[in-house]
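Hypothesis: this fold can be encoded by more than one sequence.
Test: take the C-alpha cells below, design a sequence, compare later.
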C-alpha cells in the first residue's frame, strides 16, 4: 500500500483502536490493530514488521483489510474444523440414559465409563465410532463432570499419631557411608 493512498485515522478511530487493543482476544488481532496504529503514526511497513515480529506482507495484508472493512477486517476469523460426528440429538439420548445406571440399559456395569458411553452411542444410538476424548470433551462442554469416589475413614486408628510421626521421620532420611571399591 502506498503512503499516499492512506487516509489518516480520525480521533474516534484512534480511541477505538486503543480500546480494542486492551480488549483484544487474540495475539493476531492485537498485531493487526498495532499495525494500523503504527502505520497511521508514520512508520514504514518494514519498521512495523520489525517491531511486531512478522513479515512485511502480513502488515500489507492487515492494512488492506483495514481499508476494505475497517474493524471488521481486523477481527479474528472463525476457525475451521469438521462437523461433529455425533449430533446433538444423539448426545441428548446419551444424557438421558446417564441419569440411570448402565444396568437399566442392558449393560453389565455399575457405573458409566467413557468406553461404555462410546459403546452405547455406537450400538444403541447409531453414532459412528468415535474417540473417548471427544465424548469427554463434549460432556464437559454440556456441564457434565466426572465424579471420582473418595476413600473415607471407616474407623479411627488409635495409633494414627505414632504412624504419622514414623512416616515423617522416614521422610527426613538419613545419610549412610557406603563402601567404595
Amino acid at each position: 500500500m502506498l503512503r499516499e493512498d492512506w487516509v489518516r485515522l480520525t480521533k474516534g478511530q484512534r480511541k477505538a483502536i486503543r480500546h480494542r487493543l486492551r480488549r483484544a482476544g487474540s495475539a493476531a488481532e492485537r498485531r493487526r490493530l498495532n499495525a494500523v496504529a503504527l502505520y497511521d503514526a508514520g512508520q514504514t511497513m518494514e519498521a512495523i514488521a520489525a517491531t511486531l515480529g512478522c513479515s512485511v506482507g502480513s502488515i500489507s495484508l492487515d492494512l488492506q483489510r483495514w481499508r476494505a472493512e475497517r474493524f471488521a477486517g481486523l477481527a479474528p476469523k472463525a476457525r475451521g474444523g469438521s462437523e461433529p460426528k455425533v449430533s446433538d440429538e444423539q448426545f441428548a439420548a446419551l444424557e438421558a440414559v446417564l441419569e440411570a445406571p448402565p444396568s437399566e440399559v442392558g449393560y453389565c456395569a455399575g457405573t458409566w465409563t467413557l468406553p461404555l458411553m462410546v459403546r452405547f452411542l455406537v450400538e444403541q444410538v447409531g453414532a459412528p465410532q468415535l474417540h473417548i476424548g471427544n465424548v469427554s470433551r463434549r460432556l464437559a462442554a454440556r456441564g457434565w463432570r466426572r465424579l471420582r469416589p473418595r476413600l473415607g475413614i471407616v474407623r479411627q486408628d488409635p495409633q494414627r499419631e505414632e504412624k504419622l510421626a514414623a512416616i515423617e521421620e522416614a521422610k527426613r532420611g538419613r545419610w549412610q557411608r557406603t563402601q567404595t571399591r
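Residues 27-40 form the longest helix (14 residues). DSSP finds nine helices and no strands in the chain.
Hypothesis status: open.
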